[in-house]
Amino acid sequence: MVDGSETREGATARRSHLVDISPLRASLPFARLWAGNTLAGIGAQVTATAVALHIYDLTASTFMVSLVAWFALGPVIASGLYGGAVADRFDRRSVALIASVVAWASTVSLAAIAWAGVTTVWAFYVITTVNAVAATIASATRQAITPRLLPLHLLPQAAALTGISMGLMVTAGPGLAGVLVARVGYAWTYTVDVLLFVAGLFGLWTLPRIRPELDEDGAPPASGLRAVVEGLAHLRTAPNVRMSFVVDIIAMTFGHPMVLFPAVGAVVIGGGPVTAGLLLAAFAAGGILSSLGSGRVTGARWQGRAIRNAIIVYGVAILGFGMVLAVVMVGGHAVSSRDFGDADRTALVAAVVCLAVAGGADNVSSIFRQSILQAAVPDRLRGRMQGIFTVVVTGGPRLGQMLAGSLATLTVTWVPPVVGGALVVGLVVLAVARVPSFRDYDALDPRP
Q1: pLDDT of 99-114, one tens digit each?
Q2: pLDDT tens for residues 218-267?
Q3: Residue ranges per structural domain of the chain
Q4: What is the pLDDT of residues 280-324, one digit of tens each?
Q5: Residues with Cβ < 8 Å from 299, sequence gap 6 or more?
Q6: Could you give the CA distance from residue 374 to residue 70 in angstroms, rounded to a whole number?
Q7: What HEC string does the chain produce?
Q8: Major facilitator superfamily (MFS) profile domain: from which residue to which, for each copy (predicted)?
Q9: Which of 157, 184, 267, 367 is most buried by a 10 A CB count?
């Protein structure tokens, strides 16, 4: 737990609006982990974007693209819950390294089938599901490692740096994927991820051992199903941590239209893979900008209110993106062309602005949700809580892709973001109003 004086130091010492890089100076292992994970994450986003474009090229169906999320959802949930328990039981460095090697091997498999010219769609579903499972375990474990590498008062700053990392991943990755797919094809695109992944493995390899802490009786953490149940039981007595999960599930389930981007680039705004990549990059660019200007943001005291307000802005921005698509389609100005030169530039700029605002708001919410989780949860439970958190932040978007893809198939492309954005705003306001302790969460007195 963090005492008030320690949190106050982190909240007030920084005066600049620019991002605080103190965590990188305070811990060389954290700096190597952050840099390696950033490069590997860029490659992972290259592959995620390429898989969506590849499946759309093979099937011409947004629903078939959304099946990537459908097939992986159950395994991701199970791996998050059990992976977090494993991270609490064993050396976290070893757990993260083994899971990352499995994820790397699945990327090698994608590259191999692309070079072989395999066009069987189920092969992509199987490999991406394996990749998602391994990545979920690795991500949960890495986040549980961070509080062991840094003093607690630097955790919000570390979360802001993670926001920059995530922003770089989903800015450079999709943009690079769009260009690579258009210029050199899918096989070379997947191969780029294979090479970039090595940086992430290096960052994990150079970490010190992160052995589990013993409980109050000197016993090691529980294992197996008992450990999972113990972690879930902790949520019943942790309303603030629980609500941080709930509001993110709302935002990602109803306001995650990324699965629509290939179709938007193909038959709405036009521009094909390059437009799809730019839309994804815009979301990430907003996250980067919000992190770069996070110097004072990370010192905010009332973090529950900050999360609520950020998600409201997110919902409004997603609604705005949907309205841009509605104007284009209802007005009869949709462009059916994969040539970027034929894209509707006005609509593209408006869509990019909306998604950049959404990305910035989502990142601010993420900074404080991660800070609450890491500051208010005891270390012996951090792996399991991070596992649940990872299930939320990976499962929520996948559920959102499933819903958006299915709804777009039943209606038209602009309906999911318009309806979803409105639902995000209304549901988050109602949810936070029902839990006053979350609304009044005080960073100077963190309580789970």
Answers
A1: 999 999 999 999 999 9
A2: 666 666 677 777 777 777 788 888 888 889 889 988 988 888 888 887 88
A3: 21-439
A4: 778 878 888 888 776 666 667 778 888 999 999 999 999 999 998
A5: 10, 11, 12, 14, 156
A6: 30
A7: CCCHHHHHHHHHCCCCCCCCCHHHHHCHHHHHHHHHHHHHHHHHHHHHHHHHHHHHHHHCCHHHHHHHHHHHHHHHHHHHHHHHHHHHHCCHHHHHHHHHHHHHHHHHHHHHHHHCCCCCHHHHHHHHHHHHHHHHHHHHHHHHHHHHHCCHHHHHHHHHHHHHHHHHHHHHHHHHHHHHHHHHCHHHHHHHHHHHHHHHHHHHHCCCCCCCCCCCCCCCCCCHHHHHHHHHHHHHCCHHHHHHHHHHHHHHHHCCCHHHHHHHHHHHCCCHHHHHHHHHHHHHHHHHHHHHCCCCHHHCCEHHHHHHHHHHHHHHHHHHHHHHHHHHHHCCCCCCCCCHHHCCHHHHHHHHHHHHHHHHHHHHHHHHHHHHHHHHCCHHHHHHHHHHHHHHHHHHHHHHHHHHHHHHHHCCCCHHHHHHHHHHHHHHHHHHHCCHHHHCCECCCCCC
A8: 192-448
A9: 367
pLDDT given at position 421? 93
- What is the pTM (predicted TM-score) of this model? 0.71
